[in-house]
Amino acid sequence: MSNIKISTKNLDLYYGENHALKNINMNIKAGAITAFIGPSGCGKSTFLKTLNRMNDLVDNVKITGEVKIDGEDIYDPHVDVTLLRKKAGMVFQQPNPFPMSIYDNIAYGPRIHGIKNKAQLDEIVETSLKNAAIFDEVKDRLKKSALGLSGGQQQRLCIARALAVSPEILLMDEPTSALDPISTMKIEDLMADLREKYTVVIVTHNMQQAARISDDLAFSLVGEMVEFGDTKQIFSHPQDKRTEDYISGRFG
Ligand SMILES: Nc1ncnc2c1ncn2[C@@H]1O[C@H](COP(=O)(O)OP(=O)(O)OP(=O)(O)O)[C@@H](O)[C@H]1O
To answer: Residue ranges of the ABC transporter domain (predicted)?
Structure first.
């Protein structure tokens, strides 16, 4: 069990009357890529957001059960949510760079966490951009606006921004769905590089992408986790007829 980074037990989430997550029990491995697939509205994004308490920001949410990261209950009242979100960073579907320079986008998080030294910030900016495989494309324009980058570049910048605060977990909500195939490939290559160093949890509508990049796969339907396990195993021998129907395109 020592390589389990995130675990949920009897996790239920309600938006008002809407029972959006139903008794989710799973163990997410450290240093692996875990992908979530399932039809629109089945609760993939909701689940992802329970892992760094982004749902706290939504009115009328009720969460019961347990979510643990490194064995610690993240819903314990003593948890520092800012530190939790530093540990579990998020990348969204639409690239969302801040309206500021490329450099400042990356330095923003470290500055908030108290790093003021210029040399140290320079180092973090360069390393983060390199780790997100975008440094060479932007190194001569670090002081220019991030909004001048292409969509694919903006998304890699957002990944660099997430990496800049030294997270342990990356939560990625359909990170390539707004991107062209070449940018998608670059992000997939990047995720392969990030594997092992980070625990990556990704929501994707792209079944081929899930098959290509993930180690473990979860398939959900209307809030229920239908099947969860080794990606290759699920694609070759799904245990549940509903999973089989979904991955073979006979569903929805
Ligand atoms: N902020 C919210 N307030 C109320 N209900 C919500 C909220 N966010 C999501 N829901 C509801 O919870 C359910 C799950 O939504 P969620 O966005 O998690 O699904 P999803 O699987 O990520 O969908 P998609 O693939 O379309 O992004 C849906 O019924 C949705 O309408």
So the answer is: 6-247
Using the predicted structure, report yes or no on whether residue 180 has a pLDDT greater than 90.
Answer: no
CATH of 4-99+167-247, one of 3.30.710.10, 3.40.50.300, 1.10.260.40, 3.50.50.60: 3.40.50.300
What pLDDT score does 1 carry? 47
Among 42, 62, 220, the mutation site with the greatest number of ligand 1 atoms within 8 A of its Cβ is 42
pTM: 0.94
Cα→Cα distances 15→80, 90, 134, 145, Å: 24, 21, 38, 38
Is 96 in contact with 107 (CB distance < 8 Å)? no
Domain ranges of the chain: 4-99+167-247
User: Which of 88, 73, 55, 53 is CA-nearest to residue 8?
Assistant: 73
- Ligand 1 atom at minimum distance from 42 CA: 21
Burial 23-46 (b: 16+ CB within 10 A, else e): ebebbbeeebbbbbbbeeebbbbb
Extract the tokens encoding 94: 């639409």
Q: Which atom of ligand 1 is nearest to the CA of 55?
A: 1
Residue whose CA is at the smallest distance from ligand 1 atom 27:
40
CA 86, distance to chain mean position in Å, is: 13
Q: Whose CA is nearest to atom 16 of ligand 1?
A: 43
The predicted pLDDT at position 147 comes to: 97
Nearest atom (ligand 1) to Cα of 43: 18
